[in-house]
TrEMBL record, chain A:
<comment type="similarity">
    <text>Belongs to the adaptor complexes small subunit family.</text>
</comment>
<protein>
    <recommendedName>
        <fullName>AP complex subunit sigma</fullName>
    </recommendedName>
</protein>
<dbReference type="InterPro" id="IPR011012">
    <property type="entry name" value="Longin-like_dom_sf"/>
</dbReference>
<keyword id="KW-0813">Transport</keyword>
<dbReference type="Pfam" id="PF01217">
    <property type="entry name" value="Clat_adaptor_s"/>
</dbReference>
<dbReference type="InterPro" id="IPR022775">
    <property type="entry name" value="AP_mu_sigma_su"/>
</dbReference>
<keyword id="KW-0653">Protein transport</keyword>
<keyword id="KW-0472">Membrane</keyword>
<dbReference type="InterPro" id="IPR016635">
    <property type="entry name" value="AP_complex_ssu"/>
</dbReference>
From TrEMBL, chain B:
<dbReference type="InterPro" id="IPR002553">
    <property type="entry name" value="Clathrin/coatomer_adapt-like_N"/>
</dbReference>
<keyword id="KW-0472">Membrane</keyword>
<feature type="region of interest" description="Disordered">
    <location>
        <begin position="886"/>
        <end position="913"/>
    </location>
</feature>
<feature type="region of interest" description="Disordered">
    <location>
        <begin position="692"/>
        <end position="865"/>
    </location>
</feature>
<feature type="compositionally biased region" description="Low complexity">
    <location>
        <begin position="730"/>
        <end position="746"/>
    </location>
</feature>
<keyword id="KW-0333">Golgi apparatus</keyword>
<feature type="compositionally biased region" description="Polar residues">
    <location>
        <begin position="747"/>
        <end position="764"/>
    </location>
</feature>
<dbReference type="InterPro" id="IPR016024">
    <property type="entry name" value="ARM-type_fold"/>
</dbReference>
<protein>
    <recommendedName>
        <fullName>AP-4 complex subunit epsilon</fullName>
    </recommendedName>
</protein>
């Protein structure tokens, strides 16, 4: 099936966007998010010494600059029968739950493509952009991923429906 | 920092009129954003729920306002609270004419509802209407919703429209229609089985987006049935070739890589098609070779494609050249500083090792480095690799390491996995029994005892009893002694897992006193301690008591005087009054045994007979003489249970002559109530608990008959209800053991389960052995040096790996192409200082620049490339277009008919009525809201 879910969580562990491609009940989601976030944040704590540098850069260059080659650890975590591929941009973690046979590096780059796309639309996207425009972030995801598969990777194609809708209003 | 940013954004929003969002919404988002704890966030959300509940009840809510409320509902659910009170408003919003509102409505509905939710029925009609819309964005929104909301039942309601949309003039619509069909295929393959040809046709779509999306359903289809798609091999290869030649529009480029996600999907499909197929594989050699040459290993995405190539090569039948290229790519991954690449390298190694086992040779040190890395993910991946390359020569080192790791982690899920892998490897490759018992089983049991399968415990007991089947009694008794010794040592540790204690008790009972090293009172004292320390665990207690019984039996049999320790005596007394009938039974048996003479005891519990077969004479033929005697002296002959079942009511009145003619008279059928009574009898037989023979024969027999009169059966049922309350399940177990084995064979109660499991668990073992791969001597030597290497000197490592490095360096691509760490100069490869290479880490700013470039280049040349691509497209299609087209026309002719037959399959009227009622209950009046809503759907 490929992608099982996409989560955006800030570094306090608060969910900022959640999209599941298989049905989970509210309780299951809550439990899953709790476990995953704890796991990923704990891994990240080991890299806390880079925190200040992250913050510093982010304040100047937005989310995109937050991703640096500073990752000491793998960006992948196994969790139950999923693999979580995660990437941190400034204060936001992007986490994608995938099946075991998915290409982790490609998913990692898919996250980046998503961020680039949002960046193109919002301009220096940050956590608040996503919060204030939750539906737009979802619309972009709807264009990019269907049935848990990556179906569109051209930024122009992803954004054109959203731009058309913006124009109409 | 964050607050500063918040303020900045707020200012910006103020000047833009807040994106048209209300102050309320901004405040909500702000307060959620500023919440410092989960509790605070929950408080905000709870009060928001109250507010929304009130607001949604207000009449005439403006549409814009409504949209905001819906988003707020999405927030509530996202943060883990129930927003079901507002679902209906999201459903209503999908009816709106305004595109943005409609799409928001659809989005909310897809987030809130699963496909079987009752409200979906209200949306299906809207979807149908939207699929007919002139505005292609409306159609797209509806297709998005279809992919989330349509279940098997509702597929026929939208299928024909979706099929029509496959030929829509807008590529975005075609793409989503394909994905909708993909979804239908997943939900109910039969619903679209006649439409499969459409996927083939869309593969040749002029638009690369549609083609790329089509790969998703094709991947699923090919996974299910490879053989039917072999004809597409050359098409896929030629598409991949064109993609790598940059024939796609530039907007698909990602970090200067042409359509990488499409490339990866194609490689996945090729792996399926080429698996075990030489001729298909050969078609792929060229393009795979090109990919290895061209791929830019300085970017993540380039490496992602390289990794996918490695995977493909490990699936197809590769050429030596490709294997070499894959091995090179893996060694680059492993030598990289990036943990992600190392991870991919280890994974690739695990895949390639299956087809070319020598490949691990050059990477031993890299593997060891990864194993010792503090990063858990990398470590696990490496363990997975080690698991794949375990053989008898290195099993000790690998399993040792796995156990150490298992002890160090807390995650039960993974602990279980590692434990079972350890057991599997140990059973498969164990070099000696001693090692197997001492190192593996004891450690695994001690640290993950509650997580391993109970079969493993029985396996272990059987192993100790049988001693690996070799006819060397001396070695066997040594093995047992060492097991006893190690268990006596371990026993003193607190909090051992139950399963482990069972094994310990059993072994001590069987072999504790066997060679005279330990006295009976010492062992029995230990066993009493166990029963005492784990007094809440009845299974362990049962094992301990049985073990005590064996100890004493061996003592009595050998003619020694038995002194029952005071603590044993008190244990027995305690158990005689136990609530568990099982324990009671065991205690009584032990008590009875202590009173018997040596000869009797010896025949009850012979020494070391745990692996002798117990012959169970089901016919009880040894009693024949006795029966004969009894009958001769006037006793009534035995009536079999089957005969009795018809007789019960009548035995009082009729003489025995009637047994031959079972009197299934009318009255039984008249009283029979088939289902409930059979159910009850089943339940009640299960409950028959008490070993008292008088009750047993009275209660059990009538119940097991299905022909009891109603009055009587209800009476019995009442009685058993009381029993059930009191005894519950454990009593059932004891009753079976008590009744199935005659009291003389008391040994059976303890050793019976082991014997049974032992024989069944023999099978998996033998199948492992047959699967065991041939180990070539060179590899053995290598692995010995590799995994002995963790203790051997550094210089050894250098010399063993040094031989390979320079050769590999020159054979691979020119190093200048990749300035970044993946290919550091050979000097830096010294494994003595792995940190030295990290100096050449990727320059973050460089990466950033590349990124900006790519995003700014996007716009311009799209059209030119588009033209190019559409020119090129026919080339792709040449192979199969004709047949495809004819197939398509066939299937389109067939469509109307199938559609009609399918619509009639929809939800039946009864269900529809129920749903209607439910909907009305929820306060929606379908006729006023949308007059046609139910017409089409429910007829």
């Amino acid at each position: 099936m490929g992608i099982r879910f996409i989560l955006m969580v800030n570094k306090q562990g608060q969910t900022r966007l959640a999209q599941y491609y298989e049905w989970l009940t509210l309780e299951e989601r809550r439990a899953l998010e709790g476990e995953i976030v704890r796991k990923c944040l704990a891994r990240n704590d080991q890299q806390i010494r880079f925190e200040l540098m992250f913050e510093f850069l982010c304040s100047y260059a937005g989310v995109l600059a937050g991703w640096l080659a500073l990752n000491e650890q793998c960006s992948f975590v196994e969790h139950r029968n999923y693999k979580i591929v995660y990437r941190r941009y400034a204060s936001l973690f992007f986490m994608v739950g995938v099946d075991d046979d998915e290409n982790e590096l490609a998913i990692l780059e898919f996250i980046h493509l998503l961020v680039e796309t949002m960046d193109k639309h919002f301009g220096n996207v940050c956590e608040l952009d996503i919060m204030f425009h939750l539906e737009k972030a979802h619309f972009m995801l709807e264009e990019m991923v269907m049935n848990g598969c990556i179906v569109e990777t051209s930024k122009a194609n992803i954004l054109s429906p959203i731009q058309l809708m913006d124009k109409a209003h | 920092m964050e607050q500063l940013k918040t303020i900045g954004r707020e200012l910006a929003m103020g000047s833009q009129g807040g994106f048209g969002q209300s102050k309320e919404f901004l405040d909500l988002v702000k307060s959620i954003g500023e919440a410092r704890s989960k509790a605070e966030e929950d408080r905000i959300v709870l009060s928001e729920i109250d507010i929304l509940k009130r607001k949604l009840l207000e009449p005439d809510i403006p549409k814009r306002k409504m949209k905001e409320y819906i988003i707020r509902l999405v927030y509530i659910e996202m943060l883990g609270h129930d927003a079901s009170f507002g679902y209906i408003h999201a459903v209503k919003m999908t009816h709106d004419d305004n595109l943005l509102l409609k799409r928001t409505g659809y989005l909310a509905v897809t987030l809130f509802l699963n496909e079987d939710h009752d409200l979906i029925i209200l949306i299906v009609n809207t979807i149908q209407k939207d699929l007919r819309s002139d505005n292609y964005l409306v159609v797209c929104a509806a297709l998005n919703a279809i992919c989330r909301l349509i279940n098997e039942e509702t597929i026929p309601a939208v299928l024909p429209q979706v099929v029509d949309l496959l030929n829509h003039h807008k590529e975005a619509v075609r793409k989503k229609a394909i994905m909708a069909l993909h979804r239908f295929h997943r939900k109910s393959p039969s619903s679209v089985s006649h439409l499969i040809s459409n996927f083939r046709k869309r593969l040749c779509d002029n638009d690369p987006g549609v083609m790329g999306a089509t790969l998703c359903p094709l991947f699923d289809l090919i996974t299910e049935d490879v053989a039917s798609y072999k004809d597409l091999v050359s098409s896929f290869v030629s598409i991949l070739k064109q993609v790598t030649e940059r024939r796609l529009p530039k907007s698909y480029d990602y970090h200067q890589m042409p359509a990488p996600f499409i490339q990866i999907k194609l490689l996945k499909i090729m792996a399926l098609l080429g698996s075990g197929d030489k001729s298909a594989s050969e078609i792929m050699y060229m393009v795979l070779g090109d990919l290895f040459r061209k791929c830019d290993s300085s970017t993540n995405i380039g490496n992602a494609i390289l990794y996918e190539c490695i995977r493909s090569i490990s699936c197809i039948i590769p050429s030596p050249k490709l294997l070499e290229a894959a091995a090179d790519a893996i060694s680059k991954f492993l030598k990289s500083d990036s943990h992600n690449l190392k991870y991919m390298g280890i994974d690739g190694l695990g895949r390639l090792i299956k087809i070319s086992p020598d490949i691990a040779e050059q990477h031993q040190l890299a593997v060891i480095d990864c194993l010792e890395d503090p990063d858990d993910t990398l470590k696990r991946k490496t363990f997975e690799l080690l698991y794949k390359m375990t053989k008898s020569s290195n099993v000790e080192v690998i399993v040792d390491r796995m156990i150490d790791y298992m002890i160090s982690i807390n995650d039960n899920h993974y602990k279980t996995e590692i434990a079972s892998r350890c057991v599997e490897l140990a059973e498969q490759f164990a070099p000696s029994n001693q090692w197997f018992i001492q190192v593996i089983m004891n450690k695994v049991f001690e640290h993950a005892g509650d997580l391993v399968n109970i079969k493993v415990a029985h396996n272990l007991m059987r192993l100790i009893a049988e001693g690996f089947g070799e006819d060397d009694d001396d070695a066997d008794s040594k093995l047992r002694l060492s097991a006893v010794e190690s268990y006596l040592q371990i026993m003193s540790e607190p909090k051992l897992p139950s399963l482990f204690l069972q094994v310990i008790s059993w072994v001590l009972g069987e072999y504790g006193t066997a060679d005279g090293k330990y006295s009976a009172s010492y062992i029995s004292g230990k066993l009493c301690d166990v029963a005492d320390a784990y007094s809440s665990d009845e299974t362990v207690k049962g094992y301990a008591v049985s073990a005590l019984m064996k100890i004493y039996a061996f003592e009595i049999a050998s003619g020694r005087k038995v002194d029952v320790l005071p603590e044993c005596q008190s244990l027995i007394e305690e158990l005689l009054a136990s609530h568990s009938t099982d324990l009671q039974q065991r205690a009584y048996e032990l008590q009875a045994l202590l009173a018997l003479d040596a000869r009797a005891v010896e025949s009850i519990l012979p020494l070391d007979a745990s692996c002798e077969d117990i012959e169970v004479d089901k016919d009880l033929s040894f009693l024949n003489g006795y029966i004969q005697q009894a009958i001769e002296s006037g006793a009534q002959p035995y009536i079999s249970e089957r005969e009795r079942s018809g007789m019960l009511e009548t035995t009082d009145y009729h003489s025995q002559d009637h047994h031959e003619v079972p009197s299934h008279a009318l009255r039984f059928e008249a009283y029979e109530r088939p289902k409930p009574s059979s159910l009850r009898t089943q339940a009640s037989t299960e409950l028959v608990p008490v070993p008292e023979p008088s009750y047993y024969s009275e209660a059990h027999q009538p119940i097991s008959t299905s022909s009891v009169s109603e009055r009587e059966s209800s009476e019995i049922k009442l009685r058993l209800d009381g029993v059930k309350q009191k005894w519950g399940r454990p009593s059932y177990q004891s009753s079976t053991s008590a009744s199935s084995t005659p009291p003389q064979a008391a040994n059976g109660t303890s050793s019976h389960p082991d014997v049974g499991v032992g024989s069944s668990s023999l099978k998996p073992r033998s199948s492992y052995e047959s699967k065991k791969p041939e180990i070539d001597p060179e590899k053995q030597r290598l692995a010995a040096s590799l995994f002995g290497g963790s203790s051997s000197s550094r210089s050894d490592r250098k010399s063993s790996s040094g031989g390979h490095k320079p050769a590999k360096g020159t054979a691979s691509k020119p190093p200048k192409e990749n300035p970044i760490p993946v290919q550091p100069p050979p000097d830096l490869l010294d494994f003595g200082e792995p940190t030295a290479t990290s100096v050449t880490a990727t320059d973050p700013f460089k990466e950033l620049e590349g990124l900006m470039d790519s995003s700014s280049q996007d716009g311009g040349s799209t059209d030119v490339m588009g033209v190019l691509y559409s020119d090129a497209a026919p080339v792709t299609t040449t192979t199969s277009v004709d047949s495809l087209l004819s197939e398509l026309s066939d299937s389109s002719k067939g469509n109307p008919g199938t559609y009609q037959s399918q619509t009639s399959k929809g939800p039946n009227s009864q269900e529809a009525l129920e749903k209607d009622a439910l909907v009305r209950q929820m306060g929606v009046n379908p006729t006023s809201q949308n007059p046609t809503l139910f017409k089409d759907l429910l007829g």
